[in-house]
Amino acid sequence: MKTLFLFQLIVLVLFITNLNAQLEGKYYIESEFEDKYLDIELHMSVNGTPLNLRNGSNDVTQRFNLEDAGNGYFYIKSDLGKYVHIENNSSNSNAKVVLWEGKGNSNTKWKFNDIGDGYYSIQSKKGTYMINQWGKRTEGTRIVMWKRYGSAWKLKTIKKGEKVNQLIRISVSDMSFKSFHNNDCSRLQGSLIVRIKNIDNLEYYNPTKNTLAPSVNYVGDYNSNLLLFNGTLNKDYHKRNINKLNNYAHNVDFIVNLNDYISGKLQLELSSNIWGCHKTCDLCSGYHCKVRYNEIRFISGYAIRSTTLKMKPHSSSNFFIKAQDGHQIKGKISMINLN
Question: Could you give the angle at the alpha carbon of 115 between the alpha carbons of 60 and 29, nearest 5°?
Answer without folding.
Answer: 5
